[in-house]
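Please annotate the following for my students:
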Amino acid sequence: TDDKKPKLTPREGVDSVMNLIPSIMDATANNNLGGLDNVLDQLGEIAGATGLDMADIGARLHGVKEQSEKAQHHFANVDAAMWDGDMARVNMLHQRGPQLDYAALGTEASDVYAAPCIDEAKTAALAELSIEPVAPEQIVPDRYADIAAGIHGAVDAFLATGQDPNVPTGSDLHTAFLAALDAPGRNVHDLQKLIAAGADPLANHVYGDTALSWAMGYYHADTTTAETETAVIQLLVAQGLDINQPMPDFGTPFGRALIYGKAQLVAAMLAAGADAHQNLPMDHPLDLLAGATPIIVAAPKPEVLKLLLDHGVDPRLADDQGRYPVEMIEVQTAAAQDRADAADPWTVAHAEGLYESHRILTAWLGENST
């Protein structure tokens, strides 16, 4: 070997390369994929530097690269689901893992993949407010599960018990009012009943959310209408909640609505005076959306993007990472189309949504070029 190559004995070379393969798999499974392809390319050179002909090393490296590509697609799909605000899919993908074939590579990796679904917003809020998490044994049994489940008559049944609606209970530690905001088919009538019975709409969740920011993380948009969402948001604002109050990770409740909400919630927030021009904070947990403009955040949902354009949000502005929306969305559209799989209709719909948003932006820029 020359001075530019590793000075390894054949035995050291064998040990180094064979030890690297499980390490690469571990990095792949834990989404530490930066520079992995370059490392794999260098492995062959390291093997050659030992002067030893290592059986099957080429096939093994090729197999690792294939597995790496699968893992990168998996984690890109996780990011796409987070961008779209589809937390049910995020959790499903986390549980499923990247589905790598470790056995084919001759390495033990039964416990390599363990991707926890961490609530970064909750963690940040706890740190900001110096609030300690509640220990499981301190959690009061959930009084509001039926309300949160949207069971007909659940609010009346709870109020008939005469219990205090402001005591946080259950693993979610929400109050009766927050539970009603979680419910499928949430409606202003149930919220008004709770307020009349003493529920405090200005009481924050123990982890820092206001009722308004809590209402943005809604998983049942298909059970509401533009009219019902408008009524709910108007009620919250009328009770004194600040529609633009700063919050961790999302900047304001509107930033959270763009990710988790559908068009009816976003429209209701705009009608109530939400500031639609703020970028997400640079410390947003998803790197893809760190510092992103509202146009970028809305890109997977063309109907939401149209609302922003109609509201006067300028799609020509770069985000805090220096990315221009139309260019960034074009790149993401191409990547999503590459990952789209007819066996996974979600990926196809995501790619189609981005493509439509890119088409809308391109047309807008053409009409507003002067």
Observations:
- Residues 105-119 have pLDDT under 50 and may be disordered.
- The CA atoms of residues 26 and 32 lie 8 Å apart.
- The radius of gyration is 25 Å.
